[in-house]
Amino acid sequence: MLACWDNAVVERFFGSLKHDWILKAQHPTYESMAADVAAYMKYYNLKRLHTSNGDMTPVEYENYQLKVSTWA
User: Fold this and answer.
1) Residues 6+ apart with CB under 8 A from 46
2) Where are the domains of the chain?
3) Predicted confidence (pLDDT) per residue in 8-63, tens digit
């Protein structure tokens, strides 16, 4: 049985994509929209700070977790 929160991560991403990015720009062609979505995905994962990660980007957080887990 599926619950509405099963897809919360993806829903949050698409909500941010629509609210923060797509609705604020003109997209005359499909190709420009696809390029813009790719740019947002790169921004979201590499530059955007996430409060749930201690204000780190997802990549910084993953690298931090790898470093912490290999100290043992």
Assistant:
1) 57, 58, 59
2) 30-72
3) 878 888 888 888 888 888 889 999 989 999 999 999 888 888 888 889 998 899 89
HEC profile of the chain? CCCHHHHHHHHHHHHHHHHHHHHHCCCCCHHHHHHHHHHHHHHHHHCCCEHHHCCECHHHHHHHHHHHHCCC
How remote is the C-alpha of 69 from its chain's centroid?
Answer: 24
Amino acid identity of residue 10, one-letter, is: V
Report the pLDDT value the prediction gives residue 35, as an integer from 0 to 100. 93
| Cα-Cα-Cα-Cα dihedral sign, residues 55, 47, 63, 16 | positive
